[in-house]
């Protein structure tokens, strides 16, 4: 069995002018792990995702994915390597149907060539059919198949969040980055999301890095949690260790990190 981590972030940092948004950040994710990334507002969590997905190139450090150095690669190449993400502010094709939103993501994996697509050779049609069937399978997992013809913008908020995850998964990632997937959800929706995240991790053999302010969710699904404060890693450990960690308690204004933050 390989002991190499799927993702290895080594002493990564980035400056925006005089601000060191992330500094000396190190994290290893092994295949199949579900790790939480938490921290107060402005701690640098989304910047870490932007560094991992090629939105920003790190000004220091290295990022290895599957043993390959990926820092500096453009976002589309990072996606092709097997890293997908969702965004804090939902980004869907609002005017397209739910099904088309997933089909577009699945397209990046489709086996039929661009020429057969343009000239509509038979191979293209079988590719289209397969893509549609696969996309509907994804929608079933996310309980969205009954609204597949609906425009994305017409879905209730909780369903839009689920569609974003379905779309990220349709690109066939090995590593899924979820940026505050429970933001704006009610407690029941959050509970269902928690179950869904655990389910897809097992079902798709995924490795997941989860940014989330809802501590109940983070503590409930993650094996390990990394805590950022002012761009620095201040703690890494099990939910129980993090809950009691003095630096984490201090970063969260003296309160014990727990359900009061849910
Ligand atoms: N493109 C940018 N240019 C300048 N400053 C930036 C840029 N992106 C992020 N920052 C700054 O970097 C710091 C970290 O921001 P980031 O969005 O990563 O924090 P966060 O932990 O995700 O916060 P939140 O929980 O509020 O989403 C903040 O001070 C932010 O203003």
Automatic annotation (TrEMBL):
Listed SUPFAM superfamilies: P-loop containing nucleoside triphosphate hydrolases (SSF52540)
Transmembrane segments annotated in the record for this chain: none
Lineage: Bacteria, Bacillati, Bacillota, Bacilli, Bacillales
Coiled coil: none
Protein name: ABC transporter ATP-binding protein
Species: Perspicuibacillus lycopersici
A Pfam family of this chain: BCA_ABC_TP_C
GO CC annotation: plasma membrane
InterPro entries (alphabetical): AAA+_ATPase (IPR003593), ABC_AA/LPS_Transport (IPR051120), ABC_transporter-like_ATP-bd (IPR003439), BCA_ABC_TP_C (IPR032823), P-loop_NTPase (IPR027417)
Alphabetical UniProt keywords: ATP-binding, Nucleotide-binding, Transport
Record keyword Transport present: yes
PROSITE patterns assigned: ABC_TRANSPORTER_2 (PS50893)
GO MF terms, alphabetically ordered: ATP binding; ATP hydrolysis activity; L-isoleucine transmembrane transporter activity; L-phenylalanine transmembrane transporter activity; L-valine transmembrane transporter activity
GO biological process, one term: L-valine import across plasma membrane
